[in-house]
Design brief:
Elements: H1 7-12, H2 16-29, H3 38-62, H4 70-97, H5 99-105
Helix pairs in contact: 2-3, 2-4, 3-4, 4-5
C-alpha cells in the first residue's frame, strides 16, 4: 500500500511510516543502552528516526525487499542506529587519516574456494 505524501515528507524526502517505525525502534533501544542522560535519550530516538527515514528506502532497494517489509526494516534500523552510527564514524575516521591506505585495504575481488 503506497503511503500518501505529506508536505514535510516531500520536502525531506522521507516516508512518515519509516520515521515512526524508526522512532519506536529508538525508544525500545533505550532499554538496552546504559548511561545516557536525557539529551542522549532524545538523540537516540531522533537518530533512530533519521536513520530509518533515510536508510530504509536505500536498504530496501538494495536488498530487493517489498514494500510490506519496509516498516520492519525501518524499525530494525531505528533499534540499532545508536550501535551502527559509532561504527560508521570509526570507518570515516580511518578513511580521513589515510584515504589511500583505506582504499588499498579494501578487497578488489571476491574469491571462492572453487576458484582456487
Amino acid at each position: 500500500m503506497t503511503e500518501p505524501a505529506t508536505t514535510a515528507g516531500a520536502i525531506l524526502g522521507i516516508k512518515f511510516g519509516s520515521v515512526i517505525a524508526g522512532a519506536v525502534g529508538g525508544i525500545i533501544s533505550l532499554h538496552y543502552i546504559e548511561g545516557l542522560n536525557m539529551w542522549g535519550r532524545v538523540l537516540a530516538v531522533v537518530a533512530g528516526a533519521a536513520v530509518a527515514g533515510y536508510g530504509t528506502p536505500v536498504l530496501s532497494g538494495w536488498l530487493s525487499l517489498g514494500q510490506d517489509a519496509e516498516n520492519a526494516l525501518a524499525f530494525f534500523l531505528g533499534l540499532t542506529a545508536m550501535n551502527v552510527i559509532p561504527g560508521l564514524i570509526s570507518v570515516s575516521e580511518m578513511f580521513k587519516s589515510d584515504p589511500l591506505g583505506f582504499i588499498r585495504r579494501q578487497p578488489t575481488e571476491r574469491s571462492t574456494d572453487h576458484d582456487q
